[in-house]
Amino acid sequence: xxxxxxxxxxxxxxxxxxxxxxxxxxxxxxxxxxxxxxxxxxxxxxxxxxxxxxxxxxxxxxxxxxxxxxxxxxxxxxxxxxxxxxxxxxxxxxxxxxxxxxxxxxxxxxxxxxxxxxxxxxxxxxxxxxxxxxxxxxxxxxxxxxxxxxxxxxxxxxxxxxxxxxxxxxxxxxxxxxxxxxxxxxxxxxxxxxxxxxxxxxxxx
Length: 205
Description:
single chain; alpha+beta; two-stranded antiparallel ribbon; 6 strands; globular
């Protein structure tokens, strides 16, 4: 399937994962509707190094990546329910009991630290966190990490749904006055302005 570029407008990768299915221009698009779509979305999100994606894609048996994409979609819809339930008010410790599926995913992670040569003239040594990409299922781990960071670091009172007609996009409103209303002003915001303008013209007739 030909897909437009994925949309990263939420100001949080955890929410951008939820927006991996959306209706940007009239027609719904699911960027992770199959294994190739998942690989492409992860590359665009920069959650997984491109060389690791290529290596996993080369090693995968037929249907394996499609299965992981199906798991990603199930994870996405579970997380959408959690976010929509708690959006608009600060998250409390009481929500922890609902996060079992996410903690179960995080427990599967295999990360380690390694000393590597730094970049630049000095070539100083620095500590880098690495992940073992043993199987395609590991592709869900950085997604889970992004979701967990969102849960722990974001103020859920700032989480909003775009006010655009039929738009399903979610975002974290980090504007100074918390006045953001649209996923993208040039898309949903302009449509709303045009609709309001047409309604004003009709009311004058």
